[in-house]
Amino acid sequence: MQVKIHPSWQAILENEFSKPYFKELMDFVENEYNQHRCYPMEDQIFAAFKHCSFENLKVVIIGQDPYHGVNQANGLCFSVNDGISFPPSLQNIFKELEKDLQIPYPKSGNLERWADQGVLLLNATLTVRQSEAGSHQNKGWETFTDVVIQEISHRKENVIFLLWGGFAKKKGTKIDKKKHIVLETGHPSPLSANRGLWFGNNHFSKTNKYLKEMEKKEIAW
């Protein structure tokens, strides 16, 4: 399986692609896609690294698994393909966005518009078997995405990391908090949101406030 990503990422991650664990991972993924219906589509597995170049990266949002429903996932965490109804977590993200920034509830759940502005929408595991949540965990993806987070932390400064929920917070241990801005809150899933752990976090307005202070272009959420 070929890894097609933005050239700026290629230079940073190419050493990783030659490591034994990554080759084993690609063999596993190729085999899974040949034998089962998996998501996202093969050409979207590395979409996060195509839409958001390393140079343009300003914000990182960390998810866990791609959506495993039919044609939902498009390679960006929390994002769905156009024309797909919004999963509950995405509904809660948009409700918080609407309240935080007083902007209309988005019509499309496709978050490519965020990624193209420098938001890396990174799932910890980049693939999944249809209707089987977590089916591609512990196969090597987590090692790869840990390296991605470490490289961002090491090579850049003042990146804003949005860590939503316990899983993202664990991934956050790879971030140098002296160099970067880390905002944490509960997960947008109904389970967490209904316990009062998501709504009112104001992460979208806070992110733009920090970007403005750094004289960087704000995100049009």
UniProtKB/TrEMBL annotation:
Family: Belongs to the uracil-DNA glycosylase (UDG) superfamily. UNG family.
UniProt entry tagged with the keyword Cell wall biogenesis/degradation: no
NCBIfam families with a match to the protein in the record: PRK05254.1-1, PRK05254.1-2, PRK05254.1-4, PRK05254.1-5, ung
A molecular-function term among this protein's GO annotations: uracil DNA N-glycosylase activity
Signal peptide location: none
Pfam families xrefs: UDG (PF03167)
Reactions catalysed: Hydrolyzes single-stranded DNA or mismatched double-stranded DNA and polynucleotides, releasing free uracil
Uracil-DNA glycosylase-like domain mapped to chain residues: 50-211
Catalytic machinery residues: 65
SUPFAM superfamilies: Uracil-DNA glycosylase-like
Biological process, per Gene Ontology: base-excision repair, AP site formation via deaminated base removal
HAMAP family for the chain: UDG
Main function: Excises uracil residues from the DNA which can arise as a result of misincorporation of dUMP residues by DNA polymerase or due to deamination of cytosine.
EC number: 3.2.2.27
Key words of the record: Cytoplasm, DNA damage, DNA repair, Hydrolase
UniProt source species: Flavobacterium lacus
An example Gene Ontology CC term for this record: cytoplasm
Stated name of the protein: Uracil-DNA glycosylase
Subcellular localization: Cytoplasm
